[in-house]
Amino acid sequence: YARGISPLVQAIQKIQIHPAQLTSIHANLCQLCLLSKNLKPALRFLDIDVTEISREGVRFDAKDFLLYYYYGGMIYTALKNYDKALYFFEIAVTTPSVAVSHIMLEAYKKFILVSLILHGKIISLPKYTAQVLQRYIKPLCQPYMDVANTYTQNNSADLRVIVAKHTEVFNRDNNMGLVKQCTTSLIKKNIQRLTKTFLTLSLTDMANRVQLAGPREAEKYVLQMIEDREIFATINQKDGMVRFHDNPEKYNSPNMLLELDKEMQLCIQLDNQLREMDREIAVNPQYVQKSSGIHEDDLPGTSSSKIQAY
Amino acid sequence: MAASQIRDFAQLGNEIERQELEYGASPCTPKMYSQLLAIYLLQNDLCGAKFLWKRIPQSIKQSNPELANIWLVGQKMWLKDYAGIYEASQKEWSDDVKQILLAVADTVRQRALRLVRLAYSSIGADDFAVFIGMSADKAIQAAQEEGWEVDQQNRIIIPKKLEPTPPVTIMNEQHLAVLTDYVNFMEN
């Protein structure tokens, strides 16, 4: 598999008119990377936001689009970039469609799991999600919905029971690794909830509340979360206590201003880009025909000649 | 630990990655794999190391015990088993990877030190010793050198919080230009 990566990378670069264009080869490259376990080459393409799809004379298929976002999501999940993974799965799942697609189904299953790991619940999908999702795909994901429901109950023991019950399904779908990460993330979420109620807490108490083996294990989790910046706390080994803090970021430093600057620049660029795309569509003859055709319904004779004038 | 040395290793890593892609289906030399694996560990790219290990052919793994030893360090890093990391990195390494692995142990130690500073208001001497891979007495000595309080009787160490890094200053004219851009944008 590895043999194909380098030629495909070059092929994409040759075919693309600009770096933000999606081609049908993108999905193939992602697939090759996943199979050969060498994920880095795909990243340079995945990290760029797609603004255009290459026509390739009707050969670009919906499958290529769905597969690109599905495989892309898998690559980001493997590299533990859950933010982007969720975004990619969301795109795959909110593609306008009338028919049920297996790719969408698998993407939705992973979407549920990554959403749980990242946000602690299944985040709501945008309004433009296709109806097929609600009607056909959700019922097919029952084990995953079970996991999600138990997750929101915040009980680790119950979650373990549900996972054991559906182990076969998860293994068959190759999602067992993600499911295990969900169980870990539930423990972390419970620890985070403790920060809302307590200012200081003993490690033994924490272990009991979060259903861990003992204070040593609780200390390990808290240390891990402090390192990952998922929590603000200090451990006092002398007394075996943990003290929770507020986020020390006061948002009033020059560094923060620089960060804000960067974000605002990105927004401005995005706005300009959207204006461009809007303008392009507005002068597209098909669009003009459709939108003015509605107004010209009572003037059938003059409508066609009017279009010619454009 | 010189920053330039880290940069050099990063460049070496990129070079080897490129070569691996060019080789395509045929396997790379064990030296390339060992060096790349060690460099991933240095950069704390544990996911990258894991996938590299998975795609190295079984035959190369079996005929090169050093490769397996490097991966052992990686496994300990994944599990955050600090004692294990230092122990695994104490082995005799060949010249190809010796520098890199020394750097790995050093970076792990620095990171652990930073974490202890951030996370602990007081830590037992034995635990601290595990974090930085020294014996308990040496650890106490090191802490005293850093200026931390040490309670000899209970062997508790109180780390000092790190001073926040000084903020980056921006030029005033640059600031004005940026602000004009924003006003311009919002008026349109």
Automatic annotation (TrEMBL), chain A:
Keyword Nucleus attributed: yes
Keywords on record: Cytoplasm, Nucleus, Signalosome
Localization per Swiss-Prot or TrEMBL: Cytoplasm; Nucleus
GO biological process: ubiquitin-dependent protein catabolic process
UniProt xrefs under InterPro entries: COP9_N (IPR055089), CSN3 (IPR050756), PCI_dom (IPR000717), WH_DNA-bd_sf (IPR036390)
SMART domains on file: PINT
Residue span(s) of domain PCI: 81-249
Cellular-component GO terms for this entry: COP9 signalosome; cytoplasm
Pfam families registered for this protein in UniProt: COP9_hel_rpt (PF22788), PCI (PF01399)
Cited SUPFAM superfamilies: Winged helix' DNA-binding domain (SSF46785)
Similarity-based family: Belongs to the CSN3 family.
Stated name of the protein: COP9 signalosome complex subunit 3
Origin species: Candidula unifasciata
UniProtKB/TrEMBL annotation, chain B:
GO biological process terms, semicolon-separated: COP9 signalosome assembly; protein deneddylation
Entry-linked InterPro entries: COP9_CSN8, CSN8_PSD8_EIF3K
Keywords of this entry: Cytoplasm, Nucleus, Signalosome
Cellular compartments per GO CC: COP9 signalosome; cytoplasm
Domain spans labelled CSN8/PSMD8/EIF3K: 30-165
Top-level taxon: Eukaryota
Localization terms from the record: Cytoplasm; Nucleus
One Pfam family in the UniProt entry: CSN8_PSD8_EIF3K
Keyword Endoplasmic reticulum annotated: no
PANTHER family given in the database record: COP9 SIGNALOSOME COMPLEX SUBUNIT 8
Protein name per UniProt: CSN8/PSMD8/EIF3K domain-containing protein
Organism, as annotated: Candidula unifasciata
